[in-house]
Amino acid sequence: MNDIPAISIKDVVKRYSGHGDEPGKLALEGVSFDVPQGGIFGLLGPNGAGKSTLINILAGLVRKTSGSASIWGFDIDHDMRNAKRAIGIVPQEIVFDPFFTPVEVLDNQAGLYGVPRAMRRSMELLRAVHLEDKANAYARTLSGGMKRRLLIAKALVHAPPVLVLDEPTAGVDVELRRQLWELVQEMNAEGVTVVLTTHYLEEAEELCDRIAIINHGKLIANKPTRELVEMAREKIVVLTLDREIDALPEHPAFLKCANVGERSIEVTFDRDRINAGEVLALLQGEGFAIVDVTTREPDLEDVFVSLTSAG
Ligand code: ADP
Ligand code: MG
Q1: Residues 110 and 169 in one domain
Q2: Ligand number nearest to the C-alpha of 216
Q3: Does 271 fall in a domain?
Q4: Does residue 1 fall inside a structural domain?
Q5: Is the domain of 41 the same as that of 96?
Q6: pLDDT 10s digits, 133-189
Q7: Which residues have CB under 8 Å from 100's CB, separation 6+?
Q8: N or C, which terminus of the chain has less Cβ within 10 Å?
Q9: Are residues 155 and 93 part of one domain?
């Protein structure tokens, strides 16, 4: 145990091979970060950012071009056997043999990992993912949500300390997303370090205690979620005035000012330089009466937009 990182990634570069004269896609441009033990770590980035490439390198499915990575202290180049034992990976795609039952799927997987029969815990895992009553149903009769839960159980048969989920909720409905979030939190409460990739900001903000952001193959942030949200220096106030406004107000601390309705304007301001009260006073000073006010707290989306547009 001690405090080695659950996963450590150093200067990882991946260039996919090209065709003919075409150079291959540079999917990772030297990415380094550590995933601490015990938390829920989010690897957040838009489609094509390089998230799956990184996960597939850890899974041994994609060969990195350079750099190094270790899982629970085991280097994936020098000790892949132990590295693989320390991690369970839930792929984005659902693939099952439709003629196996959930309990058979888990027993087979345990066999692949050389888990002795006496130590197999297929039923316990099915209970953990709330599929106990489907233990003997054919996999093809399971709903999409049940299949995803079975994949999570399958990734856990060898009791790895680290569970990685690649886009667990991409394209799933709201209810199933909630169920999967709860399941992830339950696994984490049991002591499993969880890493999940997602392109949903809301998901990362809700679930993860730490978030790394990857964009175009580069790491652009890696911070506790709370600190990341606090990086949003902007605040937005929407004002409804008593009459139409001809010239939008200007002030050095305003980052943006826009008409959002006949008598409504939205002011984005630097919350370190001015506060909402001063924004109101400014408009009142220009002779407007304010009919309604709403403010918005900064969220991860604001940080994300400013980080990704700066890059
Ligand atoms: P993400 O999971 O963040 O959506 P990926 O890691 O799948 O991103 O893809 C990163 C980039 O690498 C994309 O531009 C993608 O088109 C490219 N890519 C992914 N897999 C391959 C492959 N097998 N061969 C060539 N290019 C690939
Ligand atoms: Mg992906």
Answers
A1: yes
A2: 1
A3: yes
A4: no
A5: yes
A6: 999 998 888 988 899 899 999 999 999 999 999 998 887 888 888 988 999 999 999
A7: 108, 138, 139
A8: N
A9: yes
- How far is the first Cα of the chain from the last one, in angstroms, to the nearest whole number? 37
Distance 50 CA to ligand 1 centre (A): 6
Q: In this structure, is residue 2 part of a structural domain?
A: no
Considering only CA atoms, which of 6, 95, 9, 96 is closest in space to residue 51? 9
Tell which of 229, 260, 295 closes a domain. 229
Residue 292 forms part of a structural domain: yes
CA 110 – CA 156 distance, rounded (Å)? 9
Last residue of a domain, one of 169, 201, 229: 229
Domain of 292, in residue numbers? 234-310
pLDDT reported for residue 311? 44
The residue with tokens 């952001």 is: 213
Q: Please state, in angstroms and rounded to a whole number, the distance separating the CA atoms of residues 43 and 219.
A: 10
Query: What is residue 223's DSSP assignment?
Result: E
Burial of 189 per CB tally in 10 Å (0-12, 13-18, 19+): exposed
Residue 5 CB neighbour total at 10 angstroms: 16
Do 32 and 79 lie in one domain? The reply is yes
Total domains, the chain: 2
Q: Per-residue pLDDT tens for 200-255?
A: 888 999 999 999 999 999 999 999 998 888 776 778 899 999 988 888 888 888 88
> Which numbered atom of ligand 1 lies nearest the CA of 52?
2
Cα of 53 vs centre of ligand 2, distance in Å, is: 7
